[in-house]
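ok so I'm stuck.
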Amino acid sequence: MKLTHWLAVAATAALVAACGSTTQGGAVGANRSQILIVSEAMMDEQAKLAYAETLQKASSARTLNINTAQTARVKNIASRLIAQTGHFRQDALRWDWQVNVIQEKTINAWCMPGGKIAVYSGIIDTLRLTDDELAAVIGHEISHALREHSREQASANALQNLGISAISQVAGLGDVGSTVVNTAAKYALSLPFSRNHETEADLMGLELMARAGYNPQAAVSVWQKMSAASGGSVPQFMSTHPSHATRIADLQAAMPKVLPLYQNAARGGARTKSAPAQKTQSGVRSFNTPIGQPRR
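replied:
not stuck anymore, here's the structure
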């Protein structure tokens, strides 16, 4: 009985210590309490390795950033969005953001922990995305990283699999994380985000694009195009996402909160020049946003 009691106390203490919000609320109120028992540093490091592997495979297949104009377009849009991330979390402005385009017909895009972004040409070409619509897609993916949804999923998985005795180890920050998270790619790429996470990323992405000077109404047209392209079914990119109708309704309901931000940006309040692409030590073309002071 005593052992069970102390295990319960330890588990409760660990969960309380792990509760918090990774972001400020912003205009859309993205400050839900999260349980995060897996290390942020671990997720970032694993994401870095997984991202490098993804780029290496694309480079070997000669599908990495082969369309110069399209790559420049994606990086420019991402630059303006990244410059607004400080409204949700200021430390994100100092992340090692990287943006690359992979030439595949896949309708997909993602952002790994720590700001490692990949956009597939298929989503741009198949949906014939405008700049505003592409900003909605990239802003959505950036928002997953800002809220650390991959880390939150990994933490939930840890709680499910480790059991009450293993949870007690978390309070001491032992090797729990390493036994749970083999790679961030598992959570950023393979496992779908929950519907709550998707809705959260939609709304945060809506705010990011509005602050960056992109028309938030375009977020609605993205999902209308996605619905048409999928023929009513849910493509890989949208697995376990909210229904198209629900997603569109939620976006439209949030418009009054973000349209004033867009109008301010359209007057020149948030126009940001993109930073030039730079070469990493591995020779892969990467992208880093300039660090600036976000507006409150």
